[in-house]
Design goal:
six-stranded mixed sheet, alpha/beta, UDP N-Acetylglucosamine Acyltransferase, domain 1
């Protein structure tokens, strides 16, 4: 029980670390569905580990009704966990989440089939998962990784990476721990499609310049004839 209380305190502190809009104790306790959701999950998970039937699932169901966040009581979640905004978040039964993780609204940590056993992702420490991202299957997301908003991740990702796109692709691997400020910048990730378009535009401009040169050269030759 002491460990649970320490974990809840860490979750409470995480709200202030990860959300600049958080102002005071009363506001967090009364007005943060992400904090309410993890608080109820801690209770449900404790009862789940005691193998108490029905009640943990009932608490999870109540949690979804009150917050719009669905966390299976079997999911293992580390300390300092924060769900910002929260609506539409789904976390499956065999999901494992490390410490100091931040996720945004609409995130799904789900399975890809009806197989038994481990079928949901394992998320490392200090990970940020942007709004609407889907991480599916028994894959592992390494420590200090950022997953861009709207990404769909189907394969394991090593530590210290940035992943974007559908399907998710690694676009950078810097090898450093994220600072609290960087954790909040989940929208500031590289856009490989935009980079490709910019490169294509440069090639088109280069081709147009060469065509103009050839046209002018032909005109000069015709004048000399």
């Amino acid at each position: 029980m002491k460990k649970i209380i320490e974990t809840i305190i860490a979750d409470y502190k995480a709200v202030f670390e990860k959300d600049p809009a958080a102002r005071n104790f009363l506001e967090v306790i009364l007005c943060y569905p992400g904090f309410h959701a993890i608080l109820l999950h801690r209770i449900a998970h404790f009862l789940w580990n005691l193998r108490i039937p029905v009640i943990p699932r009932l608490i999870s169901h109540l949690n979804r009704f009150l917050t719009g966040i669905e966390i299976h009581p079997g999911a293992k979640i580390g300390k300092g966990f924060f769900i910002d905004h929260g609506m539409g978040v789904v976390i499956g039964e065999t999901t494992e989440i490390g410490d100091n993780v931040l996720i945004y609204q609409g995130v799904t940590l789900g399975g890809t089939g009806k197989e038994k056993g481990k079928r949901h992702p394992t998320i490392g420490n200090n990970v940020v998962i942007g709004a609407g991202a889907k991480v599916l299957g028994p894959i592992t997301i390494g420590d200090n990784t950022r997953i861009g908003a709207g990404s769909v991740v189907l394969k394991s990702v090593p530590p210290n990476c940035t992943v974007v796109g559908v399907p998710g692709r690694i676009v950078s691997q810097e090898g450093k721990k994220l600072t609290p400020k960087e954790m909040l910048e989940h929208g500031n990730v590289p856009d490989p499609e935009l980079k490709l378009i910019e490169e294509l535009n440069k090639r088109i401009e280069n081709l147009e310049q060469r065509i103009d040169y050839l046209e002018n050269l032909i005109k000069e030759k015709l004048r000399d004839m």
